[in-house]
Fold this sequence. Notes:
The protein has 585 residues and is mainly β. Helix content is 3%, strand content 45%. The chain has 2 helices and 50 strands. A hairpin with a 4-residue loop joins strand 12 (167-174) and strand 13 (179-185).
Amino acid sequence: MNCERKGRRISAPHIAAVLSVCMLGLLAAPAAQAGEPSAIAFGAQSAPGDAEVILGEIDPGGESTQFLAQYGFASSHWCAEQPDVVIGLELGVGPLGLGGSIGVLDGSGHHSTPPTPLGYSDYEEHAVAVELGELEPGVEYCAQLVAFNASGTSTSDKIVFKVGAPSIRATRYVAADNTLTAEVDPAGEETEYQLLYAPIASEWCASAGERGTPAELGTPTPLGFTDNSYHPIAVHLAGLHAGVEYCATMFAVNEAGSTFGFQVAFTEGPAVESLTPSSGPVSGGTTVTIKGEGLAGTSAVHFGAVAAGILRVGPEQVVVSSPEEAAGTVDVTVTTPAGTSVTSEADLYTFEVFAEGIPLPPSGPTGPTGSTGSGGSTGSSGSTGSSGSTGEAPAVGKSEQVAVGAGPVTVRPAGSSVFVPLTAGATIPDGSEIDATHGSVVITVLTPDGQEVSAEVSGGRFRIHQDANGETHFILTLALTGCPRTKLPRGAAATTSARRRRHRPRSRYLWVTEKGGHWGTNGRYVSTSVEGTRWLTLDECTRSVVLVTEGRVRVRDLVTHRTHTVGAGGRYRARARHPRHRGRH
């Protein structure tokens, strides 16, 4: 056995067992002298026609060298005579779960294959394969490789194998998706494979599979092949606990026998179970609470590929500040000493294009809901009354139909001085004012060609007006306070308050979402015109901002008198030219 070249991942509890096997192998195999070859047998692989291929390596010792294989029944005296024990290390086979078995064999007799020239005379190890034919199916054999040249002869440790049993190789744990992968050779038979695993502290793991039972047994799965080739398999490990170390292996079985693969050890990494909130602005800076398992010792948190600032760390909760990132949805991953969390739907975070401090828009037009608004007046005080006629169809330029989309909505019909709760399905006269500061309202209008189209408006107070061409405009009317006196451009929404009132806003905004018709908004320094989109109009004392999340918006800058087209994810800012100029406000 070549203990340094096996390339297998093994856990700490297995080290003693491996060292024992290696030490026994060193005792059993005579040390090669200078010029003598050396031989190592790795294992046996099934071949067609009840044959097995012995795999190993030969070092020619700098001389022309030949090699062969010797083999016999596992019960033979020959298999038991080197010198007191036989070291069986079939690739992926054996009750140790490490790919080998140790035992004293008895009986007599062995066979040899014809010698084969190695073809090398250097001091390197070269892979060899020797086929053993006409073996009895289901019977255990032992075999060894023999190398010889002019300076001497060397034999490998003897390996034990069963003819026709499946073989397993290349077992490994893939942390990215919590799977155990391997390759299975069905040895020409219908074969099933199964995943076995348990916590590393269990007796089964600690004894390398000799004692105890695995804590978890996967579902037996047909391999689907009956040839003599290796086929990749992968099984997902479910029910793991973050921060816990496990061992796992694959098991394969057919009519001729069964095989255990190598045990591999791994520690389950952190798991993200929820994000609060799960969305925020592209500018970053949102405080996000990540909840999950195994989060203690978190050293890094990434939103997609961008690192976030870590604020607080606990075993089940990490608080971070979101980074600046482009619009879109990304996975949030947490890295601890145990690894990086596997991505899932629970860790998705969406970067939205919207102004800081402005709530996200509604998901889309809901259409007239027939629900009844609630709440009292949010504008001028006065007695309540009817919000409009019910059951009447809208008329072009004369009336619009309105219904509550969500939250409290009030309306001040044209010609009235008071806001009243909106009645579901009400028809209001053109020029009415609606307050949807804390809710949303669905507005349905009639187009000149006789079609009814709807838009959902939320987040602000506005006056509604449909012109003779059928374009419906929402004019922002919530009074701004503390703005300097300035001359506003023609067509601007000009409502302000000269006094600084504690509860009056210094900004106002309106979200509009629609899927048909012609709509627009009028702000302090901009007007918009759209068809089929979602956008925000934000007013401040000295600027107006238009943000577009879907579709395209034509923005008319009322200061420069230029029109700009803004696509999804974009924004346009219009600024006052002379903010301190005294005049109309």
